[in-house]
Design brief:
Mean pLDDT of chain C: 87
Strand content of chain A: under 5%
Order of helices and strands of chain C: HHHHHHHHHHHHHHHH
Mean pLDDT of chain A: 91
Low-confidence stretches of chain A: none
Radius of gyration of chain C: 24 Å
Shape of chain C: globular
Largest sheet of chain C: none
Distance between the termini of chain C: 74 Å
Oligomer: heterotrimer
Low-confidence stretches of chain C: 1-10
Helix content of chain A: over 70%
Number of helices of chain A: 16
Chains: A mainly alpha (about 400), B mainly alpha (about 400), C mainly alpha (about 475)
Strand content of chain C: under 5%
Largest interface: B-C, 92 and 90 residues
Order of helices and strands of chain A: HHHHHHHHHHHHHHHH
Structural class of chain A: mainly alpha
Chain lengths: ~400, ~400, ~475
């Protein structure tokens, strides 16, 4: 193993800062011109960051839990992407001030006139809502620090016991992750239309986060590896695994999405179908059909042939594509509550998207500057570097 | 008899293998002990440019395809094409069957609703893809069944299906030179070299599938199966409970004979005085009009009862009495004309008398109790009263109506 | 915490330093020897159960499904419960052989063949029930979209028809998967046996397979493709089974989480059954070197994980039922937990969610007697899960006037017993006739089985002298 740490090229810093700067200007401008819309855009961006940050941490846990070796040389990348988690705590603050704009159920008069809301007001009330969000964020932050501390410590001590400890954390986190991601999805997205309910919703968001986090990890890993920032000599077998899992996660998302849609379509109960009908109104119908193609059909057909699974350029493109597809998916979930007549994508939305990407790149860059890009002390690293499919 | 057969089987089971091979050499076979030796040997043989050679291993070895210089397997194309075919076939089938040939609305859904069609489309894709992959592997790519391959039933095969690794270079290779091959084997550490000869059947180029006996056996089996199926489906099952579409049931048809009762009737006559449901007998049947004072109208005059009365009157009474009760019905001149219902006699009758006439009949008018229910007859009485009153309308009534 | 960092080493999949020849003889032994007394006892018990089942089946077919305890409103009961139960059991086989193959989990080799066989027999068992439930099973041909005298086609939007397609596809693909896995092993047996009758049979069944690498090359790719299509197939089959319930508007049935919930449950119950039988088989046939304690431990971990997924679904259903504000939905769930069938509900929860939590402890994961008890409980719990879903949702209809309780009849119980008899009879016959562990796959993962050199052909053109 021959790893020497190299600083990331300046283009990364430029790109990150540039996107962040332009994004920030647009975000501020958006809040000034149309606060209501800006809050919805902000929620969209926030959920996207949750997907990448928390999803990446879940991938780290997953690797420990199943004892995968092929991904060990790339685990740091997911860990760095998970560095978004502490920021989520700060980023949630503006949302709290936007709750009145976002959620109809926070309005006094709605509560008085809506027996359905009264029935669930034990759950949907502002104090409990905030407590839940706080607990969920706390869990994420604690586990983020536990994982990264262990992983970084291992670079110096090379102590295999740390891996064993991390496996225990992973088991705990896997369970907590499932519940936190479910309730964050129910609270921040499903309750936008507080009449609507679907038991699958948590799983649906979970499937989306896995695609997004894995796509982000794939993109960074392939780029860094191709340009020689990681241990040399990692090739086809690991790429094949990236592509296959990306493919698998995406098919899983499609399966969950289809099942949820089909069951609502088939049973045709008005209290459920209205949520779909909102997404079939005006230009939203094109947007909804587009989701099938953007998120599923096109990536599926591209990733299906075996030959395309080992092409780094193709992997780069498809992982970026899937990142945008997840943003598209979240837009589809969140925005119909604001743009009720048809979808709009203006400079405001673009600004928030730029801000999100700028933030991800910057956080990754700053985190990567401080530590090794490869977990050099991990006992599984050797096996990961020599990984062969057959 | 049975013992004889068993003995024959036993004899066959323990008999020596008597197959005599031809003298034509199929190829030279070498056996190796370790996976590394065989992999290196494969690379050397491939490097020398041999084409008709193959490696025989108890399990697939990693990297052997590269060592042998094999192209990547092509079976994926078969799977992909047949999978797509499955998708298209399923969709075309469902679109045609459920929205063109016999359109049916089910659960308020469109004739063809894509979300509901996805499961079957998916299953069909997988089914065709899977079957094509297996058949493609066995028949297209492995040329199976190849029971009479020269390699089978040899000592060489016994080793390579267990724990040794084999290499065969066929004599058919254009570069085959015995000395070179043997030299190659010894250089690559083969621990044993064997000669593999063709079977006699390999040389005759006859496919056993078209053997006369075999073909006959297939045809006879087919005919017998078809015959048994035909008889079973058309004769046996149609007579047998429970397969006979419920033709035979534990009931007695009307008017049929039964041995259950001594007089062989299928049913018992009802007990005397039995009244059928909904058929309450009229207690003044056939009695003179004088009894009518005992009858009083139970149906109050309401819009509903008048409408019902009008309805019944127009159906049952108007053919003779006419729509207004003037006695000028549609049957006039074909049937004795009834008296008008507006004469003083009828006007002065109590309600019960009209009812009595309808129920009992009068002169040529038959009883209507079979066609018109008791309540409806009273409703008709009410309606007739209304008709009588309408005939007597005065100026004052017009004022009131306003 | 001790210092054994076993996770960093490759855990040996075959223990005790056995050779290739030993593998052949150990795996072929059951097919070569006369059945033992234990086998005969097991076989007779299964056969008895099968006979009872056959009698019940005969009664059902002759007199109709009025012989069952089904009533209004509980129109679906034991028939469908058993169907879903056995289909669920059938999922572990394909999961082990396909999904774990894709994930390169090499430990699967020891148990894959056996689990695949279980899949096939379980699907066969499951298939009986819906066909008999149609009332006139001899008319089952009408389930297939074939031209008929009425000119009408099947209803493609009925989830019951989806079942027909899903189950038949699943059976076919599982069978093919199992079949092509058997071919190389049958070739090995063909060359090993001394009996000429057996040799003839094995020769025909192995289709003349020669272990040629040109064939192995395509074989491995075909295996990968089959694994690739079987994986979504496994998900789809139990999803479609869940659609039978979820597309309706019955409270307790119509809920969107059903597809993944059913799939997780199926894997859970399938692994439960595989473990149950494996523990016995590895002891009887002396396969402790091939089916090691590590295998059992890994399976226990999967049981723990899938058990928790099922628990998540139980919780989510309950929470959303409350959250929805739909009184019917709320009633059905409270009725499940505290109504007349509460005992069934709590059997389900404790067997599927609570007891498997013991698998958190390594000692329990590696203790065979405790594992045996727990996996048996899983089997019971998963049967009751289907009972709870089907019966408790139906027995309280929307109108209290249509409420009723369900009581199984003797025929019902006979069929349930018979289904076990059917399954185990086939399984026991399989154990004595075919290699119950894949010989070629086990050999391929043994220590030292794979070459450490990876040469490319070196082009040195031979000169043709003549």
């Amino acid at each position: 193993m021959d790893y020497t740490k190299k600083p990331l090229p300046p283009i990364v810093a430029k790109l990150g800062t540039g996107l962040l700067g332009v994004g920030l200007v647009l975000v501020v401008l958006s809040f000034v011109t149309d606060t209501h819309r800006a809050f919805f855009d902000y929620l969209w961006m926030y959920m996207f960051l949750v997907s990448i940050g928390v999803g990446s941490l879940a991938l780290v846990a997953l690797e420990y839990l199943v004892g995968a070796t092929w991904s060990t040389p790339f685990r740091r990348i997911s860990e760095f992407l998970a560095a978004l988690i502490p920021l989520l705590v700060i980023l949630v603050i503006p949302l709290i001030f936007g709750m009145h704009d976002l959620f109809h159920w926070t309005h006094e008069e709605t509560l008085l006139n809506d027996p359905l809301l009264q029935a669930k007001s034990a759950y949907l009330n502002v104090p409990f809502f905030l407590i839940r969000t706080a607990i969920i964020l706390l869990i994420w932050v604690v586990f983020y620090f536990l994982f990264i501390r262990n992983s970084l410590k291992q670079d110096d001590t090379r102590d295999p016991l740390l891996t064993k400890q991390s496996i225990k954390f992973s088991a705990a986190f896997a369970i907590l992750f499932m519940f936190t991601i479910t309730f964050i999805a129910i609270d921040w997205m499903m309750s936008l239309e507080y009449h609507w309910f679907s038991t699958m919703f948590g799983v649906y968001y979970f499937a989306g986060t896995m695609v997004a986090a894995f796509a982000a990890g794939t993109f960074c890993s392939v780029q860094l590896n191709e340009n020689g920032y990681l241990v040399s000599n990692i090739k086809d077998n690991n790429y094949y695994s990236f592509a296959t899992l990306l493919f698998g996660f995406n098919v899983f998302w499609a399966y969950i999405g289809f099942s949820q849609y089909m069951l609502i379509w088939y049973a045709d109960i008005p209290e459920e179908t209205f949520w779909i009908m909102m997404r079939m109104k005006g230009s939203w119908s094109y947007f909804s059909i587009g989701l099938i193609f953007v998120h599923f059909v096109i990536p599926f057909l591209i990733l299906l042939p075996r030959s395309s699974k080992v092409k780094p350029k193709l992997l780069t493109v498809i992982s970026i594509w899937l990142l945008f597809a997840h943003a598209y998916d979240l837009y589809w979930i969140i925005m119909p509550s604001y743009f009720t007549e048809g979808f709009v994508f203006g400079w405001s939305e673009l600004g928030f998207l730029m801000f999100a990407f700028g933030l991800i790149i910057t956080v990754f860059r700053m985190r990567a500057a401080k530590s090794n890009l490869v977990p050099v002390g991990d006992p599984k690293l050797e096996a990961g570097l020599n990984f062969h499919l057959n | 008899m049975l013992k004889n057969i068993l003995n024959k089987i036993k004899e066959f089971d323990t008999a020596e293998d008597k197959e005599v091979r031809s003298s034509k050499l199929y190829g030279k076979a070498a056996l190796y002990n370790t996976p590394n030796e065989i992999t290196e040997a494969a690379a050397v043989v491939a490097g020398k440019g041999y084409k008709k050679f193959d490696i025989y291993t108890p399990y697939p070895l990693h990297g052997m395809d590269t060592a042998m210089g094999l192209p990547p397997p092509k079976i994926g194309y078969v799977s992909f094409i047949m999978g797509i075919t499955g998708t298209i076939l399923a969709l075309v089938m469902m679109i045609w069957m459920s929205s063109i040939d016999y359109p049916n609305i089910i659960g308020g859904k469109p004739f063809f609703g894509l979300p509901g069609a996805i499961p079957i489309t998916f299953e069909s894709t997988v089914l065709l893809c899977g079957i094509a992959t297996v058949l493609g592997l066995l028949i297209l790519f492995s040329k199976m069944p190849k029971l009479n391959s020269p390699l089978n039933d040899t000592d060489f095969m016994k080793h390579v299906t267990s724990d040794k690794f084999g290499l065969v270079i066929e004599t058919g290779d254009e570069m085959y030179i015995e000395d070179e091959v043997l030299n190659l084997f010894s250089k690559t550490n083969a621990y044993e070299v064997q000669d593999i000869y063709f079977r006699e059947s390999n040389l005759t180029k006859k496919t056993p599938l078209f053997d006369k006996k075999f073909t006959m056996a297939i045809i006879i089996t087919g005919l017998m199966t078809a015959g048994v199926a035909y008889v079973t489906l058309n004769y046996v099952l149609y007579e047998t409970v429970p397969f006979n579409w419920m033709w035979q049931q534990g009931r007695i048809d009307a008017q049929s004979k039964s041995d259950f009762f001594p007089n062989q009737s299928g049913m018992r006559p009802p007990v005397e005085g039995t009244v059928a449901r909904g058929f309450v007998p009229y207690e003044y049947q056939g009695m003179p009009d004088s009894v009518v004072k005992l009858l009083s109208n139970p149906v109050p005059v309401t819009v509903k009862s008048l409408e019902r009365g009008q309805d019944r009157f127009n159906i049952y009474c108007s053919p003779c009495h006419g729509y207004t009760g003037d006695g000028d019905g549609r049957l006039r001149d074909q049937f004795p004309k009834p008296p008008s219902l507006h004469n003083e006699k009828v006007k002065n009758w109590p309600d019960g008398n009209i009812f009595h006439v309808m129920t009992n009949g009068q002169n040529v008018m038959p009883s209507y109790s079979e066609q018109v229910s008791k309540e409806d007859r009273w409703a008709i009485v009410n309606y007739i009263r209304a008709l009588q009153r309408a005939k007597d309308a005065s100026e004052e009534d017009l004022e009131k109506a306003k | 915490m001790s210092l054994d960092a076993t996770y960093t080493k490759e855990i040996p999949l075959v223990e005790g330093g056995v050779s290739f020849k030993d593998i052949d003889s150990v795996i072929a032994l059951p097919t070569e020897t006369k059945p033992t007394k234990g086998w005969w006892i097991a076989f007779l018990i299964s056969l008895t159960a099968l006979t009872i089942g056959a009698v019940s089946l005969g009664l059902t077919i002759y007199y109709g499904i009025g012989m069952w305890g089904n009533n209004q409103p509980v129109g679906w009961a034991f028939g469908i419960i058993n169907f879903v139960f056995w289909i669920g059991i059938g999922h572990a086989g394909t999961l082990i052989s396909a999904i774990l193959y894709l994930f390169r989990q090499k430990w699967r080799t020891g148990i894959a063949r056996f689990a695949e066989a279980m899949t096939i027999f379980a699907v066969m068992t499951a298939g009986i029930f819906p066909i008999v439930h149609t009332g006139r099973p001899w008319l089952a041909g009408y389930l297939i979209p074939l031209p008929n005298m009425n000119g009408v086609w099947v209803n493609f939007y009925s989830p019951l028809l989806w079942d027909v397609f899903a189950v038949s596809t699943y059976f076919t693909i599982s069978f093919l998967f199992w079949g092509i896995g058997l071919i190389p092993d049958l070739a090995t047996l063909r060359d090993k046996t001394t009996s000429k009758v057996k040799k003839t049979i094995y020769s025909v069944m192995s289709l003349g397979w020669t272990n040629s690498n040109r064939n192995w090359s395509n074989y491995e790719r075909a295996y990968l493709i089959l694994a690739g299509i079987s994986t979504p197939l496994v998900l789809s089959v139990h999803s479609i089974v869940s659609f039978d319930f979820a597309v309706s508007v019955i409270p307790g049935w119509h809920t969107t989480i059903f597809p993944p919930y059913f799939v997780a449950g199926a894997i859970f119950s399938g692994f439960g059954m595989v473990s149950t039988i494996l523990i016995i088989v590895r002891k009887i046939f002396n396969l402790k070197h091939i089916i090691t304690l590590n295998h059992l431990e890994t399976m226990n971990k999967i049981l723990l994980a899938t058990g928790m997924m099922v628990g998540y679904a139980y919780g989510m259903e309950f929470f959303i039922a409350w959250y929805s504000g739909n009184t019917f939905e709320q009633f059905i769930f409270i009725n499940r937990a505290f109504g007349p069938y509460a005992w069934a509900y709590w059997i389900m929860v404790s067997c599927n969610v609570i007891f498997p939590q013991l698998f958190w402890f390594k000692k329990i994961r590696r203790s065979i007697p405790i594992t045996m008890v727990l996996v048996l409980l899983v089997n019971v719990g998963m049967w009751f899960e289907r009972f709870v879903i089907i019966v408790t949702s139906l027995h309280r209809d929307f109108l209290p006037s249509s409420w009723a309780m369900f009581t199984p009849t003797l025929t019902d119980l006979g069929l349930l017993l018979g289904s076990f008899g059917f399954f185990f009879t086939f399984l026991l016959l399989f154990l004595k006739t075919l290699p119950l562990v894949s010989i070629s796959e086990v050999k391929a993962v043994m220590p030292g089985a794979q070459p450490t050199v990876h040469p490319h052909p070196v082009k040195e053109q031979l000169k043709i002298t003549n």
